[in-house]
Request: fold
Amino acid sequence: MGEIVLDVNHVSIDYKNLMHMSLHQSFLNKGVKKADIVRAVNDVSFSVEEGEIVGIIGRNGSGKTTLLRSIAGIFQPDEGTIDTKNRRVSLMAIGIGFNGNNTGRENILKSGMLLGCKPDYVKEHMEEIIEFSELGDFIDRPVRTYSSGMYSKLSFAVTAILDTDIMLVDEVLSVGDEHFRKKSYKKMTELMLSNRTVLIVSHATDTLKKFCNRIIWINDGSLVEIGDTDAVLKRYDEFMNL
Reply:
């Protein structure tokens, strides 16, 4: 058995589901309950060993992204604990992590520092990140001017090239043009061989079969099964086709 680098222990995460109510209505209905608590993740536990590539599956709204962002430290669980064993964790996801008013180059530096990298180390790898992202002159333009595909390219380049211990990937591999997807798959293969620990949220079963040692299946916030990639994906497909 390898060294445990991530331990998720009885984690539950709640959201407030705000009711749609105008300001005028809220004054007229002071006694009305304004929000319901929705349990997005319910008592989930698992451990990941160093060098494992683990896939997380589940239909939309099952809590996959919420769990991933909690592992990344974006917010704390309401119950339970997440222990990354002092490893540096990076999250690759569209829509978070970059300041839209800053340029791509500025965001590379800031993102690297947030990942715990020293400025000199990030600058040393700056051109490699820019070249991999294929953004050209856009690297010196504000990120708010980027398309979703350009954003995902920069996000992938930063996370894949800067050295973090645990990489969390949320659907980014499915975004972008065909050329960049092939390049991303190739880079993921290199990372897998380099003993990087990776958690991948994806609906693309081909991607999960290609990369993952194990699969975690979550449904309506609760853990259904953890196990062999082919076996769990087979049962998941059967469940989805009911």
The first strand starts at residue 4 and ends at 18. DSSP finds nine helices and nine strands in the chain.
